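Researcher: Let's continue the batch. This sequence belongs to Deoxynucleoside triphosphate triphosphohydrolase SAMHD1, and it's 280 residues. Same format as the previous ones, please.
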Amino acid sequence: MRRSDPEPLVKRPRCDGSPRTPRNTPSAAADRTPELHPDHQTWGPEQVCAFLARSGFQEPKLLENFRDNKITGSLLPFLDESLLENLGVRWSYVANYVTNLNIIFQVINDPVHGHIEFHPLLIRIIDTPQFQRLRYIKQLGGGYYVFPGASHNRFEHSLGVAYLGGCLVRSLREKQPELQISNRDVLCVQIAGLCHDLGHGPFSHMFDGRFIPLARPGVKWTHEQGSVQMFEHLVNSNELRPVMEQYGLIPEEDICFIKEQIIGPLETPVKDSVVSLYST
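Model: Same format as before. Here are the structure tokens for Deoxynucleoside triphosphate triphosphohydrolase SAMHD1:
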């Protein structure tokens, strides 16, 4: 007996009913997405439209305007509000995608992964006091006192997680275009990987596994909770919301999305049903 065709995947919105979250669109066109050369100056009109679509810009009529007017990659950085208005495109629609073309990534020499590139927004997060604190928290807790070579810490671990998270989601985007993964999604995943351990205390897992139960009996606290709270403090105290907007994120949506990657969905029917079960 032949199985019925699986239902097409739909992209989960960051916030229910948000008009700014890209709508789910048919993925048939995604299979015809042309390859993008690393140098945007070499792009033709089709590559420009592919770049905008991959970045989350899903307005077919406006993309058609780019094709008809033969907008190439070399022209993208010079598009201003008046030129886009002549194309029937509002500047606010594409500003984030166009301005991101000239971003300069910073290279870090990682002991495991070699030379890895980091988005400027990731560097802004790394340079905060809240993240620099991770330099002084050993990855393996008390293991360093027994094995002197176990000296690596949460700082370099978090850099590696951010890098590998980016590799993973880019691979998914390439192999499963129907998922409609945008550059905005990639950046959010990398931020979550970078900040997932912000809440660790001294000696890492020993702090929430041994110290907290003894110091505060009855308090159910995990380092994931601490990471979410520390991330919120990091963003607010360093005034990073405008910086996030500068690089194409929507803070009121994406901060929630990043938190969910660290601690899991903040509110789900499954969690609610478990809570009501135990409360009775």
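Researcher: Any comment?
Model: Residues 166 and 245 are 20 Å apart (CA to CA).
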